[in-house]
Amino acid sequence: MRQRDTVIAPPRMDDGPLFEQPWQADVLAMADGLRDRGLFTAGEWASALGAALRQAADHGAPDTAETYYCSALAALEALLSRHAPEVAIAMPQRVSAWRRAYLNTPHGQPVVLAAAGPEDRET
After folding, report:
1. What's the half-sphere exposure (Cβ side, CA atoms, 13 Å) at 87?
2. What backbone phi and psi angles, to 5 degrees, belong to 97?
3. End-to-end CA distance of the chain
4. How far is residue 83's CA from residue 39's CA, in Å, rounded to a whole number?
5. CB neighbour class for 31 (10 Å; exposed up to 12, middle 13-18, buried from 19)
6. What is the pLDDT of residues 3-45, one digit of tens each?
7. Measured between alpha carbons, how far is 7 from 20 in angstroms, rounded to an integer?
8. Euclidean distance between CA atoms 105 and 72, whole angstroms
9. In contact, 67 and 61? CB cutoff 8 Å
10. Residue 1 to residue 60: CA distance in whole angstroms
11. pLDDT digits (tens, 9 = 90+) for 99-116
12. I want to staple 24 with a disulfide (CB 3.0 to 4.6 A). Which of 2, 42, 69, 118 is the partner?
């Protein structure tokens, strides 16, 4: 059985849900899954997350759950850039497509990538 490295835990909320938004759970689940698949180690994840948190603090970000999860996203993107450059190269286009999808989706409706336009539909 493989021993896991120690990983920094997300902040806990005493009187509410652990995650304020679904994407917060998603970013940690993606990091955990990619670590389990060997893309990076738990130590690399902890180092990247620590660096992102320090950078946020150095830029005056408040010590909040939002800052933690934005730092987790930045750490995940940094690790993907290092270990999966093909994903990092495609990321700006995909972010732009999701932004267009969001802007083209009527209020109250689920956002789907197809709303970005025909060039962004997945096949």
Report:
1. 11
2. -65, -45
3. 39
4. 7
5. buried
6. 455 555 555 656 667 788 888 889 999 999 999 999 999 999 9
7. 21
8. 27
9. yes
10. 42
11. 999 999 999 999 888 877
12. 69
Quickly tell me which residue has 């992102």 as its tokens. 52
Tokens for 43, please give them.
């130590």
Which of helix, strand or coil describes residue 111? coil
The rounded distance, in Å, linking the Cα atoms of 32 and 122 is: 25
Is-contact 87 113, C-beta < 8 A? no
What does 14-65 look like in DSSP terms, one character per residue?
TTS-S-SSHHHHHHHHHHHHHHHTTSS-HHHHHHHHHHHHHHHHHTT--SSH
- Hey, what are 91's tokens? 């990321």
Which token pair is 76? 């995940």
Look up residue 58 and give its amino acid: D
Distance of CA 88 to the CA centre of its chain: 13
C-alpha angle 41-42-45 in degrees, rounded to nearest 5:
90
pTM of structure: 0.71
